[in-house]
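Data availability (excerpt). The following record was deposited with the supplementary files.
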Amino acid sequence: MSNNATWARIGGTLRRNAWQAVPTILGIIVLNFVLMELVPGDAADVIAAEAGSATAESMAQLRAHFGLDLPMLRRLWDYLSGLVFLDLGVSPRHNTEVTTLIFGRLGNTLLLMGTALGVAVLSGVLIGVLMSLKAGKWQDRVLSVLALLLYSTPGFWLGLMAIVLFSVKLGWLPTGGDHSIGAGLTGWPAVIDGARHLVLPALATAGFFVAIFSRLTRASMLEVNRQDYVRTAESKGLSPAAITFRHVLRNALIPVTTVAGMHFGALLGGATVIETVFSWPGLGRLALESVLARDYSVLLGILFMASLLVIVVNMLVDLLHAWLDPRIQIR
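Predicted structure:
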């Protein structure tokens, strides 16, 4: 098949998946909106409680200003109409456009999640390959115990212990934040400073997924090793390294990438805890602050953005499957 035909099929697949994603996202938005309506209280209650001297008239004016006194169906229609133009409304808490708040934090969350996912996949696959090559030996048993420890240790606990060891005791890395406050760094020193702040939260986030990917890679490689085409490759005299990386690992990565796509949503959900532990200014902390402040317009916007990210990642996983195994037809 020519390259043009391949790209045409990939483009067609992306368009079909995009159209299929529209009703999915619409359903998620409506469901989230209705669930928010069932929660008692709103942002006006929190603002009034913090002010300490709000009257019934001032709270009514506040609700009228942000449209909180309108009927639910009217607000739902206004919200869906605004989404067409990527207008997610105004935050009563911050008195700012929701899109401004979200895009101000989105980069930090994508940096943290992307780094954690990359570390988890690379480390998990490498450990899984080593475990399969040494299956049944002491190396396999030691790594299996380490994987089990990572799997059974909550991410927030791993993060707290990392802060105690690497920040408090050894003083190697900062305890939180995404940059050194007041340092005024620019250029390459600022990049190094940001990387030092990223290490601990990324490792704490990746720990649980390293265990999953390593166990999955080990099981997949042991299964693929029993296939006929592997024995055929061995009979042709190919080196063990060529068989492992060219024939076995490539097919064993298919379930690993599938699970990675499925767990991306869980990774975003776990960001709330990790970002709180490390004071990382991302969407997770913004979501937690929005829940505490009853700022549901911001929370709806974050859920909408998270849904988009999960759908895009799963579309990329489908394309990656087709690249890893050409026998998988892109439909």
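Summary of structural features: The mean pLDDT is 83.
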